[in-house]
What we know:
With 120 residues, the chain is of the alpha+beta class. The chain has a domain at 16-94. It is 37% helix and 12% strand. The chain has helices at 16-28, 34-46, 50-53, 81-94, and strands at 61-64, 67-72, 75-79. A hairpin with a 2-residue loop joins strand 2 and strand 3. Helix 2 runs antiparallel to helix 4 (81-94). It is globular.
Amino acid sequence: MPRGPPRDNPANFLDGDQRWHELHRCLTDDGLSLPARVAGALLFLYGLQPSRLVTLKADNVQQRRTGAYLKIGNGRLPLPPALATLVTDLLDQRRSATLPICNFAHIQLQPLVEPQPSQT
């Protein structure tokens, strides 16, 4: 498999304003799929890695009188009301405690390196 050019330090980072914009979009944009909205909000708000997101199950969501929480390892992350609503809506769609909250099977990843034209 051919390797791409060597990489220097990554250069495409979102600044703070862009991150807040994307979080707001995840919380409010009905044009995005519900799983993408939940996953994006958890990523932008808490920095959860996609590999962690795909392991989350309904059991990880806890409803308390004081609010909703996401159980991660031995800790709990508070879910702001807008995100708690999205998570609850997603769980209602899934109807199973064993299905992942966020399933990325339908997402096609794009290559990081442009394919080289074949030399024939």
